[in-house]
Design brief:
Helix 1 packs across helix 14 and helix 2 crosses helix 3. The chain has two domains: 168 residues, Rossmann fold (3-Layer(aba) Sandwich); 167 residues, Rossmann fold, CATH 3.40.50. The strands form two sheets. A seven-stranded parallel β-sheet has the order 3-2-1-4-5-6-7. A six-stranded parallel β-sheet has the order 10-9-8-11-12-13, with helices on both faces. 37% of the residues lie in helices and 16% in strands. The protein is α/β, with parallel strands linked by helices.
Length: 342
């Protein structure tokens, strides 16, 4: 099978999915993507079975010629904002090929989404035979857009298990670890406020390691138990989460959050929010972590204290449970989903 992938910002975990599928099935990929910025910390390049070209500035005619030469049997489109990509999708759907829309939007019931339902026959069903979603929050939205259950693929995002599955928690490190951009929608202002409360009450009984850079860097509380690392190359993350303690993602809204999958693959207990999509698959409250309302400071405070008081036995039980839960989405299933519609 030859798969034409029309992408915006290509990610390392998506590359791992294509790489695994190519190795398993021999499928070939042509990826047309938006060029990475000059500030990008790492570059994703073509490799065996996966050709990558930058599509910035290319006309629809030029893209059509590239696609025609590749002669795809399936088209995958990341989002529906690029009119050039939509034209290609419409063409290949008309000639009878599977055209897959990738969608990670959660159903939240706002006016924009209700409007989307009204025009879905124009912007979704007209162009696509299938939709591929990460999990339950997106499945619900896909159904509302009019896609039939048999046309909805699950497990869109999969962490690179060839890397993170090898990571283990061999000792109980009483620490909360955050990895990501230091921006407001990650819920960090609330998290920092809770840390300040714990510091003021002299009750910060757990190490905090915040990894990432962004506009909120200057708000990181100063305390002997709080460490801030402004930037880490992505290939160093597995080493940092080895014996990293408990993973924290306090996002106010996170469409999915592959980083949660990476954490549970590594056997980390997780504290995250109901507003984080990946929590629906990878965190069971009280089993391998805790889930709370992102806007509830008291709940976050409660769970930080609970994590800080875990015994070594309790910690390793949660760690074991995370490892078990991590396999709910895997590279084998990702590949099988894609090949099921060929």
């Amino acid at each position: 099978m030859k798969i034409l992938v029309l992408y915006t910002r290509l990610t390392g975990y998506w590359m791992s999915c294509m790489r695994f599928d190519h190795q398993e099935t021999g499928n070939e990929y042509l990826v047309i993507r938006k060029a990475p910025s000059n500030e990008a910390p790492f570059k994703i390049k073509s490799e065996l079975g996966i050709s990558i070209i930058n599509g910035d500035g290319a006309s629809i005619e030029e893209l059509t010629d590239i696609a025609r030469e590749f002669n795809p049997s399936t088209l995958y489109l990341s989002g529906w904002s690029d009119k050039r990509y939509l034209k290609l999708a419409l063409h290949y759907k008309k000639v009878g090929l599977p055209t897959i829309l990738a969608m990670d939007n959660q159903w939240i019931g706002n006016l924009r989404q209700y409007f989307g339902i009204l025009v879905s026959k124009i912007y979704a069903l007209k162009y696509f035979t299938h939709v591929w979603v990460p999990g339950k929050p997106q499945y619900y939205y896909a159904r509302k857009l009019g896609f039939l259950p048999q046309k909805i693929l699950m497990g869109l995002y999969c962490a690179d298990e060839t890397i993170f599955k090898k990571v283990e928690q061999k000792k109980h490190h009483n620490q909360l670890l955050f990895v990501g951009r230091l921006v407001e929608h990650k819920g960090l202002k609330i998290f920092f406020k809770v840390l300040e409360q714990l510091i003021k009450a002299n009750e910060l009984d757990i190490d905090i390691h915040i990894i990432g850079s962004g506009p909120l860097e200057n708000l990181v509380p100063i305390h002997k138990k709080i460490k801030h690392t402004s930037f880490v190359n992505p290939d160093k993350i597995p080493d940092l989460i080895q014996n990293g303690g408990t993973f924290l993602l306090p996002s106010l809204y996170e469409a999915w959050g592959v980083v949660i999958h990476e954490a549970v693959l590594a056997g980390m207990p997780v504290v995250t929010t109901y507003q984080t999509g990946a929590a629906t698959e990878f965190v069971i409250h009280g089993f391998n972590g805790y889930v709370y309302d992102a806007f509830n400071e008291k709940e976050l405070l409660t769970y930080i204290k609970l994590i800080s008081k875990l015994t070594t036995q309790e910690y390793f039980k949660m760690s074991e449970n995370s490892k078990m839960i991590a396999s709910k989405i895997n590279l084998k299933e990702w590949s099988s989903m894609l090949n099921s519609i060929s």
